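Example 3.2
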Amino acid sequence: MKKVIRFSKAFLLSWIFSGVIIISGIVGIAVRGINFGIDFKPGLIEEIRIAPTALELTYTGSAKISVDASQTGMDIVISGTGADNRTESFLYAQYPTVGILAEKLGNIENLSARLIEPPATPTENLFVNSAVTTVLTEKPFRVYAAASKDVGINEVRTAVSSYSGVAVKQLGKGPNRSFQIRIADTGKNGSSKELQDTVTNALQQKFGIDNVAVVKTDFIGSQFSKSIVGQSLILMAATLILIWLYATIRFHWDFALGSIVALLHDTMIMLTFITWTQMEFSTTTLAAIMTIVGYSINATVVILDRVRDDMKILDVHGFNEVLDAALTETLSRSIITTVTTMFSAFSLYFFLTGSIEDFALVLLVGLTSGCYSSIFISSGLISFIRRNWKPEAGVHHTLPKEVKDKNVLSFDAGAQM
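Structure, written as C-alpha cells:
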C-alpha cells in the first residue's frame, strides 16, 4: 500500500510559522507603511505624443480666430467685432496634404500658415496641443503631424527618470502612438499646473520644444485617490464573501472557513512581502493578489473535494487520518500545477520590466504561499474544528473493490513519514 504522509503533524508548526510572518507584516505596515503607487495617490495623469510640427499658424487681424481640430478635419472659427461670425471647415479628405491645406488656410484674411514639414506630408490625423490656447495670435500655433517621429517608451521613461513616482505606459502603436505619464503629487511640486509643466519641460528638453504635444491632462485629487483605495478593499471583501458562500454551499461551513482563512493568509503573506521590499503597490500589484486569490481557492477546493470523498470510503478513527490521506493523494497535483504556473511567472519576471516585473514577482510569492496554505493552513483549521470528529456510528468505511483495483490511495494506519 502507498504510504500516507502525515501532514497533520506539521499543522501547529505551520500556523506558528505563518503567524510570525504575518505579525512581522503587520509591524512593517505600521512602521514602514505600504508604498502606494500613483494609482492610489493624488497626482497628474497626462497623455502626450512625440511628433513633429507640420504647420505654424499665426493671425495678425482684429477678429478672434480659434482652431478646432479633429481626426477628420480642422475648423477655423471666426468671431468678434467687425468680423463675419462664421466657421471655415477643412476636411482632410478634401485637402490630403499639408501643402494643400496650408494654401487654403492662407486664403483667410490676416491668417498665415507656414509649412514646417514637407508639403507632401499627409493631413490624416493632424492634431494640436491641448495644453495651449486654440485662439490664434501673432505667436505661432503649432499643428502636429502624427508621423515619422519613431520614439519608444524607454526614451520617454529616460526623459522623466529624474523625477520620483513616475510611471509611463504606451498607448497604441505606429505613428498614432501616445504615452500616458503618471506622476504622484508629493506636495513639493506646487500646483497641478506646476506639476504639469515639470513633465512637459522634461520632455521638451529631451525631444525638442516643437515636438511635444499634450493630448489630454487629468489631475487626481486626494479624495479621489482615497476612494480608489476604499473601492479596492470593498472589492477584496466582496470576493472573499462570495467565495465563502460558494464553499459553504458546496461543502460545509468549516470547510468554507478554512478556505477563506487560507486566502486571507495568502493575501497577508503577499502584503508582508510588498511592505518589507517597499515594492510599489499599484493596480497591477492588486491584480496579482486577486489572481492568487482565484488560484489558491481552486487548489483548496480540489483538496476539500478529495477530503469529502475520502470521508465516505476510508476506514479511519480520526479526522486527521482523512486529511492526511486526501493531502497525500492531491500532493503531486498541487506541486505540478504550481510549478508549471511558475514557469510563466518566471518568464515574465526575467524578460520584462516595470510593473509587469513586479506583477510576476508578487505572483511567484503568492503561488508559493497558495500551495503551502492549501495544504497546511486550510487543513490545519479544519482539523482543529473537527478534532472531536468520529465516523458515523454503525457505518464501516472501506474502499470499494473497484477503487482498490485502480490503485487509488488507501489509508495505512502503520505508515510513517
